[in-house]
Amino acid sequence: MSDAARILLVEDDFEICEVVTSGLRLEGHEITVRTHGAGLVEHVGETAPDLVVLDRTLPDSEGAELCRALRSAGSGVMILMLTARDSLEEKLEGLDAGADDYLTKPFALSELTARVKVLLRRAGHAGPGGQVPSASTLGPLRLDRAAVVADVDGTPLSLTATEFELLAALLENQGRVMSRTELLKAVWGYDFDPHTNVVEVYVSYLRRKLREATDAVILRNVRGFGYTVEASDKVDPPEKI
């Protein structure tokens, strides 16, 4: 798969549009710009971009609401949210709304392009050498990075891109506990705010979906160490009192 991607930039600031568009085109990507949020869900459905770079505050729309609308419509497109709001609560609200990453203005173009590369890899674009990791399995659970699909006994799991990447990281590290720091680097691709609870939030989302799909796989919290996925028959039963 080519490293080039179709990227939709939704931003009303002319200077930011110019800088971001120029920088991403130099990386070989095809860029489309919209300056408003109206009709975004329909546009994404019709054009199927690989990534949406979305301003949180648009003249006619609020970025978090647009994220929710895209996810409610069934879109799994990667979303990088841009915002001048830098509080932890704002970041978590954006991630909870469906954004896959969050970049605070002002930002360095090099940081934006680096995060775009990470998100595109998570979306299934080939990494260095053009290789995409093979499938991983655990009991009835199967995840295939190349096909970007996860299923339980053939029934697809409905996962967001971030949930998919989190599950992939855990499955590819079966038999060991992954720390929060390791998961932040593996899933988000960089050192996120160490005080954020984004890992706990997405573990909760993923655990709930796994529980609804099967009782044969457990996403376990090893207190003080991190997280791991195991077949349920390997988990010690609770002691009887």
From TrEMBL:
For this UniProt record, the keywords arranged alphabetically read as follows:
DNA-binding, Phosphoprotein, Transcription, Transcription regulation, Two-component regulatory system
Record SMART domains: REC, Trans_reg_C
Q: Which GO terms describe its molecular function?
A: phosphorelay response regulator activity; transcription cis-regulatory region binding
* Ligase recorded as keyword: no
Which domain of life does the UniProt lineage start with? Bacteria
Stored InterPro entries: CheY-like_superfamily (IPR011006), OmpR/PhoB-type_DNA-bd (IPR001867), Sig_transdc_resp-reg_C-effctor (IPR016032), Sig_transdc_resp-reg_receiver (IPR001789), WalR-like (IPR039420), WH-like_DNA-bd_sf (IPR036388)
Q: Name one GO biological process term.
A: regulation of DNA-templated transcription
Q: Which residues form the Response regulatory domain?
A: 6-120
DNA-binding region spans which residues?
133-231
Query: Per the database record, which ranges form the OmpR/PhoB-type domain?
Result: 133-231
Residues the record lists as 4-aspartylphosphate modifications: 55
GO annotation, cellular component aspect: cytosol; protein-DNA complex
Question: What name has this protein been given in UniProt?
Answer: Two-component system, OmpR family, response regulator PrrA
Q: Which organism is it from?
A: Roseivivax lentus
